[in-house]
Structures are given as structure tokens and as C-alpha cells.
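Cross-posting from the modeling subforum.

Setting up a comparison between two proteins and wanted a second pair of eyes on the formatting. Protein 1 (sequence, then C-alpha cells):
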Amino acid sequence: MKVEILKSSDGSHTLYLPDIDETYHSRHGAVQEAMHVFIQNGLLFKANDQQEIKILEIGWGTGLNSLLTYKAVKEQGLRVYYTGIEKFPVPQEVLTQLNYKDWDEDNYLTKAYATDWGKSFQLYEHFTLEKVACDVIDLDFENEFDVVYFDAFGPRAQCEMWEKEVFEMIYKATKPGGVFVTYCAKGQVRRDLQEVGFTMEGLPGPPGKREMLRGVK
């Protein structure tokens, strides 16, 4: 599938797939969106309760969310175990063209991109990463994760990722008291997440989006 590199409004790159007219991160600011949705309203929200956090990301993509998570972990003195799921890994030759080094003074992504899929690596003292190349529906976790970053392509482009069966699997994988965050705020998505058991709330969205969703198990 053809992939193009675009510069978003905050200067950070995002990837664009013209065949499905979808970007990996917001054109209105890739870093801004990731920080707002996943770091501030996911990781740091949960960090109010605990300092050791297990994260599941659905849609590891370019690794941007994991980079920004690492930076927050370093700044806040947290310990994180990060599992990133990606069915279609981005080719290495594309990843190395992204300008995320401007946000990556510790060369986190160089290490993260070099790790083998399906193996756990302690990249830094307080940050362990495992990338898994699989379909989300094949996951089998129970009460495992404190925070879930749900960053799949939108329902229009990837409707199968937003079905109740997927949300049931994610609910099962989330610990009691765990947090689910996503950029998508569609009414049907919110209702389905509520039906599988999450207590949902709408929050102000990142630039270019009115709202996002957060759920607690």
C-alpha cells in the first residue's frame, strides 16, 4: 500500500495512506494529538494512582505514542511496561525518514525500531517495550493492563477494529480501575464501550477535534 509522509500543523510528521484516505496521526498536529489523547488523558491520568503502569497500544504504527510515553516516564519518574500491537508494521525505510528525532534526545526510537517483534526488551531502566505483529482479535490477556491506547484507523477506514467483539477483548485485557483512551468520539463507539463494561466520558479533543473518549473499567 502506498504511503506518503506529511508534515502536520505542529511540524511533526504523520503518514498518509491515499488508498484509504487515512493518516496515522492528526494533520492538525501529530505530537499534539498524541500528547493530549494518550499521554495527558491516559498515562498521566492513571499515574495519579500508581507509579508502575502496564500499557497496551492498539496500533503501534510509527512508534510516536511510545516515544512520548517514554519521555513522560522519564520526566515523571514512572516505570512502564509497554506492549504495542501492529498488524501491518511500517517498513523500516519509511520510519527512518520521520522527523521524530526532534522530540527524541535520547534516541529512543532508534532502539525501539531495532527491537525484534514478539520479544520484550528493557530499553531503559524504567521502560520495557514489546512490539507484537498480530491481529488485535488474536490477543488473549485478562486483567493485564492499566492503560489502553486505542489508536486504530478510524471507523470509516477500518470498521472491523471498532466492533463490539474487539472492545470486549480489550475490556477483558484491562485491569479493574484501568483506563481506555481513544481519539474517536462517535456515539456508537461510546455506546458499545459502555455496553461491554467501561464507564465512559467525553473529554475536550486535541486540535481539530471537538471531543475524545476515556473509559474506566
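Protein 2 (same layout):
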Amino acid sequence: MKGVAVVFRAKRADRVKIVVWDASGLVMYWKRLDSSGFKWPPIVARGMSRVVLNF
């Protein structure tokens, strides 16, 4: 799983969780925005895959 990050977002798009694999195991990053949400590409057929997100 080297180089793989799995991204989960809340319905309101104000929270995001990112799970990655590093040398010692799984790491989860969590971020919540106070006033606005993250900008996401549209969801097609209830999912998306291999999408590059710009932070």
C-alpha cells in the first residue's frame, strides 16, 4: 500500500479524514474547517476513484 491515501469526507464537506500507510503502520489525519468546506469534484454514480485533490 505504499503511496496510497484513502480519503473520507463528511456530507457537509467541512471535515475530512485521510488514512495512509507509513513505515510503522496506519496513520489517520483528521481536519475540520470552521467556516467553509473543502471543495470536492462532483460525485458520479455514488462514488469516485483515482481523483487527484489539490490542497
